[in-house]
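Reopening: Nickel ABC transporter substrate-binding protein still failing for me.
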Amino acid sequence: MKKNQQYLVIGAVVAVLVISAAALTLGSTPRDADELIVAAAGTYAEPEEGFDPLHGWGCGHMDYEPLIQSTLFKSADNGSIINDLATNYSVSSDGLTWTVNIRNDVKFTDGVPLTAKDVAFTYNTAVGSNSELDMSNLENATAVNNTTVKFKLKEPQSSFIWRLRYVGIVPEHAYQKETYGQQPIGSGPYKLVQWNKGQQAILELNENYYGKKPYFKKITLLFLDKDASFAAAKSGKVDVAGLENSYANQSIDGYNLVALPSSSANGVSFPMQYDTGKKSLSGEPVGNNVTADIAIRKALNVGINRTALVEGVLYGKGDVEYTGVDQRSFGNPKAKVNDSNIEGAKKMLENAGWKDSDGDGIREKNGTKAEFKLYYNSEDQTRQALSMAISEQAKQMGIKIDLIGANWDEIYAKQYSSAVLYQYSSADTFSLYMQYHSKEADSGYNNPGLYNSSVVDGYLEKALRSTDQSQATEYWKLAAYDGKTGYGPAGDATWLWLTTKDYLYMVNKTIDIGTPQNNTGKDILGNIYEWKRINENKTS
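Support: Ran it again with your exact input. Result attached.
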């Protein structure tokens, strides 16, 4: 039996065991049409510390809404930010004070009104509570009155709007760090009524919810991996199942395969400095004499066939990617290049002095072979497949890429001297600052190539310090390419961005999921307010 087949069998067995354990909820007894069963661990994985937004619930990489809690702002179907609890906001001329006005008709599920004091408490408590929230720039939050809260920042930060977008508001009167996650009180469309750890969580409709009430009155979240989710869908026990891309060609009677675009971009980071014997702050080697040459980076960006990667690795369920943020409003189309041009790539290399003088198929320049190592997470099949595919394509250009599957500790130790296949998925514009500003170099996995451009730094700083979102967007775009330089492939080609993947789901044909939010495929329940069951009969 092949290894993949073994994994499928094991996944099926796990699915049967877990579903059997939850038989009273999901089993042979029929469920009402307005009950929904979801196995989408890619998004709604079981939270280790419970359903507490101050400890990651709903906030991981800013990917999804917490459902149980409300947020100040939320996303529209087109991806833009719109009001939720907030009614409006303003930013002071120096960019240091954000004033947000909120609704006066909202109550927590215990009947206590939600006020600006709860908002201020949430954000003040969030400072330092969870790294994924990143409230390091927040000085404090203050309730001016019941419906107005002021946020005082240490430095101007246009991307602070994303901090206001994803943090669920918790009640000051009922929040205890040790216990809140197990019995959360919120003001979102649903409330947690049961949590069987390791198996499932059951949410029921919040009848006092201030917004548009969802059609589904009950949601059961099954904590299954994606192989087990597929098996659960095959058994007909779930309405929605999150899948790996390898299931793209599979079909299940009674289900539609739904592919939701996302901004989860896969790309290769290049060490930008030459090897001079320098060490990083942690003592790791810095520099690579091959990838530091812009001709190598540009040739790969021009020569790689990204469409072939989408078709061959993602089974057609994704899109090509050039800048890492092509799908976002702050992406710059002018920073892209035309790819799949092997001959053009070869010409670039020849003109830069990279020639195959000894006929071994690998170019060299001044005694240095066009050869470098590419690290990828050995547990991620998609990254492995992408790495193998670009390695094969690079051979046609005379570039040898040596592949190394490793764990993250090993990868982080080598990222300053070797290429790494990363995935970035944050909608937050601050991610651009962290990836490309020289100040962020040698800081965790931020700016892994140690890119240093005073021009790009200037654009990133202006974008971050702007008090106007439209103006900030223009500076984010210029950082990618201003007609002469930028981090994008048309400029300094700091990365070899490859693809963005779709998130795949099997969805019962009786479910109408409305219009999913733009490029947020990981958050399939983000527009739960639009969902309904077409067939009103009970489902077994």
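The mean pLDDT is 89. If you still see a failure, please send the error message rather than a screenshot.
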